[in-house]
Amino acid sequence: MTRLLLRRLRDLLVILVVVGTMMFFVIRLIPGDPALAILGPTARPADVAALRSAMGLDGSLWEQYLSWAGHVLHGDFGSSITYHQPVLGVVLEHIPPTLTLAVLSSVISFLLSVAVTSWYAVSPRNPLARALDRLSALGMAIPDFWISLVLVLVFSVTLRWLPSSGYHSLFTDPVQALPALVLPLVVLVIGQTALFVLTLRESMLGELPLAYLRTARAKGLSESRVMLRHVLPNALMPLITQLGSNFAMLVGGIVIIESIFVIPGLGHLLMGAVSTRDFPLIQGVTLFVALLFVLVNLLVDLSYAAIDPKVRVS
Amino acid sequence: MRRLPLLIPIALLLAGCAGGATQNSGTDGPPVRGGNLTVAVPTDPQSLDMVANPGQVTAQIGNMMYEKLFEVDRDFTARPMLVDNYTTSQDRLVYTFTLRKDVTFQDGNPLTAADVVASLDRWRKAHRTGQLVSPDIDSITAGDPHTVQLRLKRPRYPIIDELASPGTEIYEAKNLAGLPATGFGQDKAIGTGPYKLKSWDIGQQLVLQRYDGYKSRSEQDWGGQAGAKHAYLDTVTYKVVADQDALVNGLQTGQWDHAMPTNDQYESLKANPAVVVHNLPGGNENVIIPNFTKGSRFADPRARQALNLLLDKPAINAATGGSKDLTIETGAFASPDNKSFYSTAGEDVYRQHDPARAKQLLAEAGVPAGSTVHIVTTNSYPEFGKWAVLLQDELSKIGIQTKIDTYDFATMLGTLTKDPAGWDLTTLFFDSALTSPAQMPALTLGTLNGSSSAELDALLAQFNASTNADQAKSTVDKLQDLTWRQLSVITLSQSRLYAAYSPRLKGYDNFYRIFWNSWLAP
Amino acid sequence: MRRNRTLVLAAGALGLIVLIVLVLPVFLPSVSATDPVHRLLPPSAAHLLGTDSYGRDVASRLVSGGRASLGLSALITVCAAATGLVIGLVSGFFRAADAVLMRVMDAWMSFPAIILAMALAISLGASLWTELIALTVIFTPFTARVIRSRVLAVASRAYIGAARVSGMGRWKTLLVHVFPNVLPLALVQVVVLAAAAMLVDGAMSFLGLGIAPPTPTWGNMIAEGRSYLVTAPWLVVVPGVTIMLCVFLLNLVGSALRQAVDPRARTLHELQRLRTRTT
């Protein structure tokens, strides 16, 4: 276990170095820089150069890279060009909205998918249960940006039931926060639940032919008891893996939904940073997202290994 | 779930049918003090330093916080603001400004001549307009604490207008010492205006609050940015809403009280009785910019003439203007509201339309049918993409192919300047309410498309040497005429802008994002 | 049996869509002809699906946009499946390469997809090629992982060991024994990839990172139609429903095929997860 952990930590460092370096050069290949973005089309080249230098963007690419990497090693991610604040602080400020969406949508989707699947497993003849189960295939096919537009139109603009956008902290202002969260959560939950239902169903189907079920049935347990007591718990493992890696991806950027619903999360931050060419901020967010992604995946793997020692963690 | 696809079109139709004509609710009643106004802005201001950051949102928030020696009224005429009165020497070379004596900065310090000198010196050095004016300025000096003397090297007719232009805000001298090119941070965002910075959640919202020590001027009827300013609202909250649809939806559902949406949204907002829609003075000059640089397909004047002949401007305007109310079919670089700069000279060239002749001229200029024209545009402003689409259609009708490269705004600028001969056409719009040639991109575009000329420079000098409004206007006519002869830009139209706001917003002068003298009806 | 019927029906419907997209443009009005007088017309006999804000025929654009959207999905699928297959095969079969390749794949996957797509679209201009590169890069590690796990399973089987003992070269073993066993899974993978690619392509176009207007794609049609959601809902509803239908059919075909090829290949869902990367 310790060796595994050490090896994964080493990998993590390698990944961060690779991602950080790639990002640094990728964004600098883009023509147009923050100075030009601010000064506009009629600016004199000399003024653009002066501003660029004041932003710390002069010197060769290589020099800039070394200086940046050196600072990062000392825990200094630099200052955002547009926010005039340390990158780390800006990133930390934008985490709560994304995390709120990711956690809530994951939990809701998990519960929903377990409920739908077990209902269907227990009463496969119930038409509603069957319909819900079948709908998951459709849920997978709905483009989320499209359903976002449609939901806003129906529930905000036409019916006026819910705000069309906005974000408030769930902890400091729950009364305003909840209604604003409903639509973005619904959009995220539709896609995720569909995926989870499919995963769970498939994993349950995989359990069915196994021997222990025959024993259980032979003991005289009813079919629904077999399903709920034996099949479901055993089939949950793949779903938990799915949940974990899904979560890691959500944290990595809910770009479109944050932009449609004006939620100041990491995806929103990243889009803004790219359009203003805020290089230090883009680098900071990328590194952070990569770190989060790797850590969450590691946690999933470790918990997987802890629950079931037979699993080889690769 | 299953029924959803059926439900949508019905809901849409309902939304589409609702509404009637919008009426401004007559008298606004007596002002009410207090409350918060929420205003949606398309981007974060990024900086509150109007010299370091010439962006529109910065300017519109800055106008609530800072003041200049002069400010424009609702007709874009410069009126004294921090200046109490001023004298001009006989030879028009020396201006002596006497400052108002009771003015204090939002940190309590009194306004002095030294602050004015420091602010204007920085403007000359670091702001684009200041740099263009600077060669004519000999010195700006403080006489006594309330007197500033401006000495010119040669008479400059628009100098007062230029002292009312963005970038000339007066900051405290102590806050300007040793500033980098990136400007000052929010701790130094201190002016003499009726509202001061309360908080700023970068990327999310910015809140201004009343400055209680503000001493107002007394002129009630100037409007715009000039005259008396009464801070009725306790606070004004600017919310950053980048997404256009979120902006409009939030306005309709009461999440904010004021927004300036794109022209696309005009008709549907106007049909909504819960929203007041009103035109703003001034507007945008919509332009197609041909590249004069050698190597471009439009380096030859005949090619530019051909392009002008080809463009069916009324059709383009109809397809992209959003509404007839918002489109003024004119080739002028200034808005008709901007009376001293609006000129109809060259209007006949603007109205020319002859695709057959265009084809012939293009061929003469070395751009035969089958050639490809490279258009560089941006998706940051939806209009630009639309013009590019229509341009492509019209060019294809005379056998010219197009390659459209769509970048985001910063990349577009980068691409245009990095490879000066690598593009043929681009699209932009300019503020058409500016009040001196030095501020006008249409006349100072040489750095971008190589359109500067001796004739243009001579006319600009002639304008600056004017001694009265009639002389100035006749030079404006010549400048406008030259623009249409050289085709440094091909103006498609003037777009009027509009504001859409809650009927509760009263006392608003329909002047951009100026909210002093405004209040919220209970 | 039921699986097969679903497969036939779904595949048939998809084939029909492809046929329409390929043949119909000949009979429809031009895609790029603008007509400012007849803008935002609701569906009628002259314009089956109405007109857009430039007065262009929506039906023509939908069909022509289908060429771009379906074509691009197909291209991405082929490219990502091919690169993923090669990386997966090599990494699953050669232990030495595995450690390195899988770390690279991990780094690759943790790189925010959207940044990469933006960087490409912004620096090279939004076009078919930048989107193709971006999406191929995004999809490859997922395919590689799925193929790799299958290769690992196949390689542990007895006959592979036997082939090795009988003196067969490693590369030859890989090609002769492992590859044919992995191929069916790769084919299923292709279908699932195509569905995912279509959704992600829609999202990219929506963000302005895909094929740029005026070339129509289903995604950029939705993006362009957004401003008229209230006044001209068909501009958004029509392409949205079309994307949904295609992805739905592709998923049906994919899951039916999978049942046929390998009932226990649950790793396939790795790919479908991709949609959350771009939400």
Name the descriptors:
heterotrimer; A: mainly alpha; MetI-like fold; 75% helix; C: 279 residues; mainly alpha; 71% helix; peptide transmembrane transporter activity (chain B); signal (chain B); Peptide/Ni-bd (chain B); SBP_5_dom (chain B)
Structural description of this entry:
Chain C: It is found in: Cell membrane. Chain C: InterPro entries: BP-dependent_transpt_permease, MetI-like, MetI-like_sf. Chain C: It is a multi-pass membrane protein. The complex is a heterotrimer of chains A (314), B (522) and C (279). With 314 residues, chain A is mostly helical. Chain A is 75% helix and 0% strand. Chain A has helices at 2-28, 34-39, 45-54, 61-73, 87-93, 95-122, 127-139, 144-158, 174-207, 211-218, 223-251, 255-260, 266-275, 279-307. Helices cover 30% and strands 20% of the residues of chain B. Chain B contains 17 helices and 21 strands. Chain B has a six-stranded mixed sheet. Chain B has a four-stranded mixed sheet with strand order 1-10-9-8, covered by helices on one side. A four-stranded antiparallel sheet of chain B has the order 4-5-7-6, covered by helices on one side. In chain B, a hairpin with a 4-residue loop joins strand 6 (137-142) and strand 7 (147-152). Chain C has a single domain, classed as MetI-like (MetI-like fold, Orthogonal Bundle), CATH 1.10.3720. In chain C, 71% of the residues lie in helices and 0% in strands. Chain C has ten helices and no strands. In chain C, helix 1 (2-23) packs across helix 9. Residues 265-279 of chain C have low confidence and may be disordered. Chains in contact: A-B, A-C, B-C. At the A-B interface, helix 2, helix 3, helix 7, helix 8 and helix 13 of A face helix 1, helix 7 and helix 14 of B.
Helix count of chain A equals 14
Tell me the overall shape of chain B.
Answer: globular
Radius of gyration of chain A: 24 Å
Cross-sheet strand order for the largest sheet of chain B: 14-18-13-17-15-16
Give the end-to-end Cα distance of chain A, rounded to a whole number of Å: 12 Å
CATH class of the largest domain in chain B: Alpha Beta
The CATH H-level superfamily of the domain at 95-276 in chain A is: MetI-like
Radius of gyration of chain B, taken over Cα atoms and rounded to an integer in Å: 24 Å
Class derived from helix and strand content of chain B: alpha+beta
Q: Which bin fits the share of residues in helices of chain A?
A: over 70%
Which range best describes the helical content of chain B: under 10%, 10-25%, 25-40%, 40-55%, 55-70% or over 70%? 25-40%
CATH architecture of the largest domain in chain B: 3-Layer(aba) Sandwich
Secondary-structure element pattern of chain A, one letter each: HHHHHHHHHHHHHH
